[in-house]
């Protein structure tokens, strides 16, 4: 969250951030009014506390001088002050709770260099990579959802039978390819100095608040043992939407040492999100799903280092696509598309040539986001209470947190199934992945199983 002092001193900048990020439902004037009332009550409480301390001292002196009647009057006055102070503190606590809730609704202030814009059309492309020497593709690249089913390595119908829409089975060589990608990514990030974490999948509401998922995006989460429309407590559990949540909250309410920083963690997790987009060509297959695998990179750094680290984090995420030799581009996100918690954000989009989209490159196909690389500055750290002490004798300060996917698996799989497709409908295995598949170079698929396959005339 933003600091209260910043809100008091820069209300118009906060108002601009709310507007440029397109955040609705925030009555900033009401928040400022609550803050002013809270400060007035705090001042009144301090004055009452001072008066009571003076009266308490006076009581002792009066008793010592034998002035019992005056001492009794002072005792009664002290009791009145105590009751008044209790009333003021209770009202101040109520207002502070309202203020804390209101501050959770206010977005991060965008970095001054972030492009100002309304939506994805205002994002700025920084560069493209790996388009100079594209491999020879089939005349008509088969979309991943069709080639996956043709090879019997993807199964959407059976997943819908088991779990509903927005899920899929990976089978045989498809499952092996995804496992290979996970191992491949993890090893790259280990080379880059990341410490591995295998976090729990259920996360508490308090953890979701700490990274900024709550209260803004409750409707997108999978709740355990309750309905999303019902009020939630700090200890209620939710399925992890991204490893950013458990890994960042590992250090919630802790003070790190300067020697600890920078801290670089990587974590593989399955992730769960209700919002999967409208059905159609753009979301068909593995592009928008409710469950997906991802390797996440989370960084804790000194404030003065965070923007250099952001550029380094971007390079670390890109390295996966470079080694896989997949064409991609990097976008700098505008204020209206960067998200609630980010001060600055880059998106990495891989090229998938199977489905032509209006906003795709001139070569055809479409862009698929595989990583968002973000600097949250101290926004998450304030919500989660994560600090560090520059020197042992100095006051603690809030760290800056950053994260980036390294990478999201389904869309990388889409890109591989389409970009590495052969004329005969098989798929080449990218060379860096072959050691994880026992040297296998081509995905040739499997025969379907069951009576339905026989009935369809696909197998004798």
UniProtKB/TrEMBL annotation:
Residue intervals of the Aminoacyl-transfer RNA synthetases class-II family profile domain: 140-430
Enzyme Commission code: 6.1.1.11
Binding site for L-serine: 242-244, 273, 296, 403, 405
Record carries keyword Secreted: no
Gene3D superfamilies documented for this protein: Bira Bifunctional Protein, Domain 2 (3.30.930.10), Serine-tRNA synthetase, tRNA binding domain (1.10.287.40)
Pfam families for the chain: Seryl_tRNA_N, tRNA-synt_2b
Region of interest (Disordered), ranges: 44-73
One term of GO molecular function: serine-tRNA ligase activity
GO biological process: selenocysteine biosynthetic process; seryl-tRNA aminoacylation
Presence of the UniProt keyword Iron in the record: no
Pathway listed: Aminoacyl-tRNA biosynthesis; selenocysteinyl-tRNA(Sec) biosynthesis; L-seryl-tRNA(Sec) from L-serine and tRNA(Sec): step 1/1
Cell compartments where the protein resides: Cytoplasm
Catalysed reaction, written as an equation: tRNA(Ser) + L-serine + ATP = L-seryl-tRNA(Ser) + AMP + diphosphate + H(+); tRNA(Sec) + L-serine + ATP = L-seryl-tRNA(Sec) + AMP + diphosphate + H(+)
Annotated positions binding ATP: 273-275, 289-292, 369-372
GO cellular component, one term: cytoplasm
Annotated InterPro entries: aa-tRNA-synt_IIb (IPR002314), aa-tRNA-synth_II (IPR006195), aa-tRNA-synth_II/BPL/LPL (IPR045864), Ser-tRNA-ligase_type_1 (IPR002317), Ser-tRNA-synth_1_N (IPR015866), SerRS_1_N_sf (IPR042103), SerRS_core (IPR033729), tRNA-bd_arm (IPR010978)
Keyword list, A-Z: Aminoacyl-tRNA synthetase, ATP-binding, Cytoplasm, Ligase, Nucleotide-binding, Protein biosynthesis
Assembly, per entry: Homodimer. The tRNA molecule binds across the dimer.
Described function: Catalyzes the attachment of serine to tRNA(Ser). Is also able to aminoacylate tRNA(Sec) with serine, to form the misacylated tRNA L-seryl-tRNA(Sec), which will be further converted into selenocysteinyl-tRNA(Sec).
Family assignment from sequence similarity: Belongs to the class-II aminoacyl-tRNA synthetase family. Type-1 seryl-tRNA synthetase subfamily.
Domains (record comment): Consists of two distinct domains, a catalytic core and a N-terminal extension that is involved in tRNA binding.
HAMAP family referenced in this protein's UniProt entry, alphabetically: Ser_tRNA_synth_type1 (MF_00176)
Protein's name according to its UniProt entry: Serine--tRNA ligase
Organism: Halapricum desulfuricans
Name of the coding gene: serS
């Amino acid at each position: 969250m933003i600091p209260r002092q910043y809100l008091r001193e820069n209300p118009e900048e906060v108002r601009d951030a709310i507007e440029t990020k397109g955040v609705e439902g925030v009555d900033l004037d009401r928040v400022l009014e609550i803050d002013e009332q809270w400060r007035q009550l705090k001042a009144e409480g301090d004055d009452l506390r001072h008066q009571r301390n003076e009266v308490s001292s006076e009581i002792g002196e009066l008793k010592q001088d034998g002035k019992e009647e005056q001492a009794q009057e002072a005792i009664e006055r002290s009791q009145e002050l105590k009751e008044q102070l209790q009333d003021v503190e209770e009202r101040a606590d109520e207002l502070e709770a309202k203020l804390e809730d209101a501050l959770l609704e206010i977005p991060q202030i965008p970095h001054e260099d972030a492009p100002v814009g309304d939506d994805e059309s205002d994002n700025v492309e920084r560069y493209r990579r790996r388009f100079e020497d594209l491999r020879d593709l089939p005349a008509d690249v088969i979309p991943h959802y069709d080639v996956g089913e043709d090879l019997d390595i993807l199964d959407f119908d059976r997943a819908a039978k088991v779990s509903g829409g927005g899920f899929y089975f990976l089978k045989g060589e498809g499952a092996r390819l995804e496992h290979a990608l996970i191992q491949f990514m993890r090893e790259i990030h280990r080379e880059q100095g990341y410490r591995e974490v295998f976090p729990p999948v259920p996360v508490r509401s308090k953890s979701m608040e700490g990274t900024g998922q709550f209260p803004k995006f409750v409707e997108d989460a999978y709740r355990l043992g309750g309905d999303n429309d019902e009020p939630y407590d700090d200890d209620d559990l939710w399925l992890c939407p991204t490893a950013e949540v458990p890994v960042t909250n590992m250090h919630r309410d802790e003070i790190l040492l300067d020697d600890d920083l920078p801290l670089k963690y990587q974590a593989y997790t399955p992730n769960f999100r209700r919002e999967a987009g409208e059905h159609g060509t753009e979301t068909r297959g593995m592009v928008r799903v409710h469950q997906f695998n991802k390797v996440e990179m989370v960084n804790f750094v000194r404030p003065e280092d965070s923007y250099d680290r952001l550029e380094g984090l971007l390079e670390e995420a890109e390295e996966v696509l470079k080694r896989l030799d997949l064409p991609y581009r990097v976008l700098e996100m505008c204020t209206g598309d960067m998200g609630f918690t980010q001060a600055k954000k880059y998106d990495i989009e891989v090229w998938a040539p199977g489905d032509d989209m209006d906003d795709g490159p001139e070569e055809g196909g479409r862009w698929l986001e595989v990583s968002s690389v973000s600097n949250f500055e101290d926004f998450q750290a304030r919500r989660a209470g994560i600090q560090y002490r520059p020197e042992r004798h100095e006051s603690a300060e809030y760290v800056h947190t950053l994260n980036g996917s390294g990478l999201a698996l389904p869309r990388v799989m889409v890109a591989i199934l389409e970009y590495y497709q052969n004329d005969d409908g098989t798929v080449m295995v990218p060379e860096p992945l072959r050691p994880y598949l026992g040297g296998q170079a081509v995905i040739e698929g499997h025969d379907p199983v069951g009576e339905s396959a026989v009935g369809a005339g696909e197998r004798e």
